[in-house]
Design a protein that fits this description.
The protein is of the alpha/beta class and 559 residues long. The strands form six sheets. Strands 1, 2, 3, 4, 5, 6, 14, 15, 16, 17, 18 and 19 form a twelve-stranded mixed sheet that branches. Strands 20-22-23-21 form a four-stranded mixed sheet. Strands 7-12-13 form a three-stranded antiparallel sheet, with no helix packed on it.
C-alpha cells in the first residue's frame, strides 16, 4: 500500500494559482482584491455593494451526523463537493469558516478540509490568516476596557457592577480564565468585580460580524450590544459608552470576506468562525451572499451535527439574511456510525455490519430533522479505506428505506474525481425545485417555547426545563421588545441530549437550560444547556504538544 501523505504534506505540495487569477473565475476585478501575499485576499466592500442587484445562485448546505472521535469530514466534503461541481461544468464557490486557534492547539490540529479536498494555504488558514480573529478579539476587549474605565471615572451611566454582562475573550482554550476577579490591587486599578473570559468564537462581536449586511449595519449592531444593567435593571448599551464607532474602526477590514482557493484552484471564501456548540456555527452572511451573486452554486457548511449547525443555519442565518437553501448534504462515515452503534474507537477497523445498522439511527434522525425544514437532502458517505462493501451497502439500504439516497464519496483520496456522483445528485436536487424551506418556529412564539420546540422537535427530548430565574429573565426580555428573536442553543455537540456519552438517537430526555444570555446586537438569545462551557479547556494531551517548526522552517503537526 502506498504511503498516505498527511494533510499538511498534500497542502504544501499544492500547485497554487495567484489569488488574482482565482478571483477572475468569479469575475472579481484585480483592483477589488486586497492581497495578503500571493495566495489570499480580501474582497472590497465597493465590489460587494456593486453586485447586490444580481440574481442569486443556488445555496447548498453541508451538514453531518453528530461528531465522534472517528471523524466525519464535513469540511472535507464541502470542499470536495465544490470541486466536484466545478468538475462537471458548474460555476461553483465554497464558503466555510475560519479556524480558531483554540481547537487548533487543543484537539483538532486544523480545520481546512483534508486529503485532496482542502483549501490552501492550509497553514495560514489554521493560524493567523488575515488577522480577522485578532481584530474581533481587540474590538470585544476594547468594549471591556471602556466599561471598567467608565466605572473607574465615576460611573455616570449608573452601571450596576454586579450586573455587568460583558465578559472578556481570547482565541485560545484556557479553563483558568472562565471565572476571574478583575481590578484587584487597590484604588488605582478600579473597583474589583467578578468577570470571566469566553473564547473569541463565542463572542457576540464574532456573531455580529458574521450576521452584518454591511459596515453601516455592523456599526448599528455593535451599538445595540447590551453590556450590563443598572440597579433598576434597565439595560446599558455599547453606544451609551460611545464604543460602537471605535469598535467598527477595528473591524472594518475584518468585515471584508477572504478569498482563497481549493487544491484544484477553485474559489473559496473563508470568513468568520463562530462555533456551533456555543454560538451559531456559520460563516459570514457577507461571504455567502456575495458568493451567491458570483457563482451558480455556493456550497457552505454549518458546524457539528445537523441538530446544532443546520438548525442554527436555518433558524438564525437564513431567517436573518433571507436565504433559501436549495438542497442539503448530510455527511456520515461508516466509522462514526459504528461508534454510534456502540463500537470503541480502537475496534473500528473490524467489520461490524450490525453496529453500522444500529448507529444508522443517528443518521436517520438527522435526515428527518433536515426534512422538517422543507429542504431536500442527500447523504454523503465519506469513504475511509477500512470501510467494507457490506458496511457501505448497509448504510445505503438504511437511507433508501428513509426515502433518500446515499452516495459513496472518495474526495479525500481522489479530489473532485471522487465527488462527481455527489455533485450530479446535488444538481438534480437543486434544479428539481423541491425545496420548500421554512424555519422551525415563528418570530412571535414566546422565547421559552422556542427553546422547548427545538428540544422536542430536533433533539426529541421530552421537555426543556429551567429555573424560575431563567424563565423570569426570558419574560423580562420579552417585555423589553426582544421576544421576536430566535434562540441559539449552546449544547454538547456529541449527542442529541446534554449528555455527551449518550450516542445514537435518544428520546424523551430532559434538556436543562442553565443560563440565558441576550445578544441584542447579533439578534438572538443564547440558551446554555447542561454543562457546556463558553470557554473550553485543553485536553490532557493538547495538539500544541505536536506542533513545531522543522529544520527547514516548515510547520509540522497541523493536520
Amino acid at each position: 500500500m502506498a504511503e498516505v501523505k498527511s494533510d499538511i504534506e498534500i497542502a504544501r505540495a499544492a500547485s497554487k494559482k495567484p489569488i488574482l487569477e482565482v478571483g477572475e473565475k468569479l469575475g472579481i476585478p484585480a483592483e477589488h482584491l486586497l492581497p495578503f501575499g500571493h495566495d489570499k485576499a480580501k474582497v472590497s466592500a465597493e465590489f460587494i455593494a456593486s453586485v447586490k442587484g444580481r440574481e442569486n445562485g443556488k445555496l447548498i448546505l453541508v451538514t453531518a451526523i453528530n461528531p465522534t472521535p472517528a471523524g466525519e469530514g464535513k469540511t472535507t466534503t464541502t470542499v470536495g463537493l465544490g470541486d466536484g461541481l466545478n468538475r462537471i461544468g458548474k460555476k461553483a464557490a465554497i464558503c466555510i469558516r475560519e479556524a480558531s486557534l483554540g481547537p487548533c492547539f487543543g484537539m483538532k490540529g486544523g480545520a481546512a478540509g483534508g486529503g485532496y479536498a482542502q483549501v490552501v494555504p492550509m497553514e495560514d488558514i489554521n493560524l493567523h490568516f488575515t488577522g480577522d480573529f485578532h481584530a474581533i478579539t481587540s474590538a470585544h476587549n476594547l468594549l471591556s476596557a471602556l466599561i471598567d474605565n467608565h466605572i473607574y471615572w465615576g460611573n455616570d451611566l449608573g452601571i450596576d457592577t454586579r450586573r455587568v454582562a460583558w465578559r472578556r475573550v481570547m482565541d485560545m482554550n484556557d479553563r483558568a480564565l472562565r471565572e476571574i476577579v478583575c481590578s484587584l490591587g487597590g484604588v488605582a486599578n478600579g473597583f474589583p468585580r467578578q468577570g470571566g473570559f469566553d473564547i473569541t468564537v463565542a463572542s457576540e462581536v464574532m456573531a455580529i460580524l458574521c450576521l452584518a449586511l454591511d459596515l453601516k449595519d455592523l456599526e448599528k449592531r455593535l451599538g445595540d450590544i447590551i453590556i450590563g444593567y443598572r440597579r433598576d435593571k434597565s439595560p446599558v448599551y455599547a453606544r451609551d459608552l460611545k464604543a460602537d464607532g471605535a469598535m467598527a474602526v477595528l473591524l472594518k477590514d475584518a468585515l471584508q470576506p477572504n478569498l482563497v482557493q481549493t487544491l484544484e484552484n477553485n474559489p473559496a471564501f473563508v470568513h468568520g468562525g463562530p462555533f456551533a456548540n456555543i454560538a451559531h456555527g456559520c460563516n459570514s452572511v457577507m461571504a455567502t451572499t456575495t458568493a451567491l451573486k458570483l457563482a451558480d452554486y455556493v456550497v457552505t457548511e454549518a458546524g457539528f451535527g445537523a441538530d446544532l449547525g443546520a438548525e442554527k443555519f436555518f433558524d438564525i442565518k437564513c431567517r436573518k439574511a433571507g436565504l433559501k437553501p436549495a438542497a442539503a448534504v448530510i455527511v456520515a462515515t461508516v466509522r462514526a456510525l459504528k461508534m454510534n452503534g456502540g463500537v470503541k474507537k480502537e475496534d473500528l477497523g473490524t467489520e461490524n455490519v450490525g453496529a453500522v445498522k444500529k448507529g444508522c439511527a443517528n443518521l436517520g434522525r438527522h435526515i428527518e430533522n433536515v426534512k422538517q425544514f422543507g429542504v431536500p437532502a442527500v447523504v454523503a458517505i465519506n469513504h475511509f479505506h477500512s470501510d467494507t462493501q457490506a458496511e457501505i451497502e448497509a448504510v445505503k439500504a438504511y437511507v433508501a428505506a428513509q426515502g433518500e439516497e446515499a452516495v459513496l464519496c472518495r474526495h479525500w483520496a481522489e479530489g473532485s474525481a471522487g465527488s462527481e456522483e455527489l455533485a450530479h445528485k446535488v444538481v438534480a436536487l437543486a434544479e428539481g425545485g423541491a425545496s420548500q424551506f421554512a424555519p422551525l418556529y415563528g418570530d412571535d412564539m414566546p422565547l421559552f417555547e422556542k427553546i422547548d420546540t427545538i428540544v422536542r422537535r430536533i433533539y426529541r427530548g421530552s421537555e426543556a426545563i429551567a429555573d424560575k430565574s431563567v424563565r423570569g429573565q426570558l419574560h423580562q426580555w420579552e417585555q423589553q421588545g426582544y421576544g421576536h428573536l430566535p434562540v441559539c442553543m449552546a449544547k454538547t455537540q456529541y449527542s442529541f441530549s446534554t449528555d455527551p456519552s449518550l450516542r445514537g438517537a435518544p428520546i424523551d430526555h430532559v434538556v436543562p437550560v442553565r443560563e440565558v444570555r441576550l445578544s441584542a446586537g447579533a439578534g438572538f438569545i443564547v440558551a446554555i444547556c447542561g454543562e457546556i462551557m463558553t470557554m473550553p479547556g485543553l485536553p490532557r494531551t493538547p495538539s500544541a504538544e505536536q506542533i513545531f517548526l522543522n529544520d527547514q522552517g516548515y510547520i509540522e503537526g497541523l493536520f
